[in-house]
Specification:
The chain has about 525 residues and is an alpha/beta fold. It has helices at about 35-40, 50-60, 70-85, 85-105, 115-125, 150-175, 190-195, 210-225, 240-245, 280-285, 300-305, 325-335, 350-355, 375-385, 415, 440-450, 470-475, 505-515; strands at about 5-10, 180-185, 200-205, 230-235, 255-260, 270, 295, 315-320, 340-345, 365, 425-430, 455-465, 485-490, 495, 520-525. The chain starts with 5 loop residues before the first strand and ends in a 10-residue tail after the last strand.
């Protein structure tokens, strides 16, 4: 949103949205899959020199750095070259076709393709050799007199070890768990991504040895910062998580997948094919952002939506833009059960009566006056106006104000405060025994209960000595402190601990980051509920 965009909240509170075929030996085999010879543009009796020449020419032409729209063709070309440059793999392909080659027909394991970008780099760095499986071969000097070949062999091994060490160092530097990017593995992918039906997820499959992955990293990190809270961003080391890569048909690195809101287990994620810069990736991710924004095309529409006796608090965006900003759509998604979001196109003639309504700003209107139109700042501001109304999906209203009181968490009170079958986020403040009734601590937790009631948080207090085993189980290896806040999602069996100052500002920032997707959940091996005393 730009300078001519104004965001206002109307405080109009009311009562508060295949058959088997047998062939004769003389018949040509039925080859299922792609024609690798056709992809390379060579005849079936092409020599290795002919195949290499064709690959050299086409790979430069189709490389995504030169031709962003040619990524799929580049991968196909690399796969074709890897097979046809390997005599053994080529013989199997000629007999059984692509599918038979992959399935290992004719004996031996199925063919495994290398990363197409690595194949490209090896080729132009002088490898130019076979690409089947792990069959890249380089000269080590042969068995020349005087043991020269052996020396070269050891030298090559040393170079390989150095290269592996460099790869490991690069991997450590590429992505870590300290930023907004979530490190995904086979063990946490389902709980973190697939079970998160409300969020948009962008997931990059990469390899530490992939030069293009390193080039993409700065832009990818920028995407995670720009979309913080609106879109969740993760990475998978495809060189390690091969099963996960196979599940999604990953054939090269880097590959970006987009998981839209909804049942992620049933959907096929979209593969990114655009330019490798943060602007293009961000726009691609935001295109699936759901919107719960109503366009006000007349004064009557405005009055019915915002001034009726059953109207909830209205958030109005005045803008001369023709499209709805993704940031505004993201806010409407987050508060769809608590606020009504609408947009007024200031250039439209029918919008003038609505604009006139706000010529002298009425007392019931509260304009946004923050320093920046950032997602997190706007979200915090809107939280002050949110008033829960029954959700169409759940049929439940939010906790009444009286329930903002802070209760001690024990085995006896667990089902009342944090029932396992609910989606409540149980924020447990572990304090020393003599602080259980501390007025200042209870007042702080009560204020947090009120502030985050619309986000399903319940703040409770627990005796850190009495409930020490329960606390240790929740921390799951995280650093222990006193006092300390730990958020527990009992229904999904996940937890995240606050590390830092135990004060209202620090805890608010922690919860805001958690709500905005900036904190990483840890999956618990088992429920710790039985450890409560």
């Amino acid at each position: 949103m730009e300078r001519r965009t104004t965001l206002k909240v109307l405080a109009t509170f009311g009562v508060l949205v295949v058959p088997l075929v047998l062939l004769l030996a003389f018949a040509p085999p039925a080859q299922a899959g792609r024609d690798y010879y056709d992809i390379l543009g060579v005849p079936k009796d092409a020599s290795q020199a002919h195949i290499k020449k064709a690959f050299k020419k086409l790979s430069v032409k189709l490389h995504p750095d030169k031709n962003p729209d040619g990524r799929d063709q580049f991968v196909e070309l690399s796969n074709a070259y890897q097979v046809l440059s390997d005599p053994e793999a080529r013989a199997k392909y000629d007999r059984f076709g692509e599918e038979g080659l992959k399935k290992g027909q004719g004996g031996g394991p199925g063919f495994r393709f290398n990363d197409p970008f690595n194949v490209f780099e090896h080729f132009f760095q002088g490898g130019g050799g076979q690409g089947g499986g792990a069959r890249f071969t380089f000269s080590t000097g042969g068995g020349m007199p005087g043991g020269f070949g052996q020396q070269q062999h050891h030298h090559h091994q040393q170079q390989q070890r150095q290269h592996q060490q460099q790869q490991q160092q690069q991997q450590e530097k590429l992505y870590d768990d300290k930023g907004e990017i979530t490190l995904l593995t086979d063990s946490n992918f389902e709980a973190t991504v697939l079970d998160d039906e409300n969020s948009i997820w962008v997931v990059q499959f990469y390899s530490p040895s992939c030069g293009h992955c390193h080039k993409l990293a700065p832009a990818y990190k920028d995407v995670s910062k720009r979309l913080r809270g609106m879109v969740k961003v993760g990475v998978v080391d495809g060189s390690v998580e091969r099963g996960l890569g196979g599940r999604y048909g990953i054939q090269g690195f880097p590959t970006l997948l987009l998981f839209a809101p909804g049942n992620k287990r049933a959907q096929t994620p979209e593969v990114y094919k655009g330019a490798r810069n943060s602007d293009a990736i961000a726009q691609w991710a935001l295109k699936v952002m759901p919107s719960f924004v109503t366009t006000l095309d007349s004064y009557k529409t405005y009055a019915d939506l915002c001034l009726g006796p059953d109207s909830s608090t209205c958030v109005l965006l005045f803008t001369d833009k023709k499209s709805t900003p993704p940031l505004y759509s993201a806010l409407s998604r987050d508060y769809k059960d608590h606020l009504t979001f609408a947009i007024v196109r200031t250039a439209a003639a029918d919008a003038q009566p609505i604009i006139a309504e706000f010529a002298p700003e009425p007392a019931r209107m509260t304009p946004f006056s923050g320093d920046s139109l950032s997602y997190l700042e706007l979200r915090r501001w809107l939280a002050k106006f949110a008033r829960s109304r029954p959700s169409a999906a759940s049929g439940q209203a939010s906790r009444p104000a009286a329930d903002a009181e802070v209760h001690e968490l024990t085995a006896a009170s667990l089902n009342h405060i944090c029932p396992a079958e609910s989606s409540t986020l149980c924020a447990v403040a572990f304090v020393p025994h003599d602080k259980l009734a501390d007025a200042e601590t209870l007042a702080m937790l009560k204020s947090l209960n009120l502030k985050y009631s619309n986000d399903r948080f319940v703040f409770t207090v627990a005796d850190e000595q009495k409930q020490h085993e329960f606390k240790k189980a929740l921390l799951e290896g995280a650093a222990e402190a006193s006092p300390q806040l730990v958020v527990w999602n009992a229904k999904k069996g996940r937890t995240v601990a606050h590390e830092g100052e135990f004060g209202v500002d620090a805890l608010s920032q922690f919860v805001d980051a958690l709500v905005g997707g900036g904190k990483r959940w840890t999956r618990l091996a088992s429920s710790p509920a039985s450890l409560l005393a």
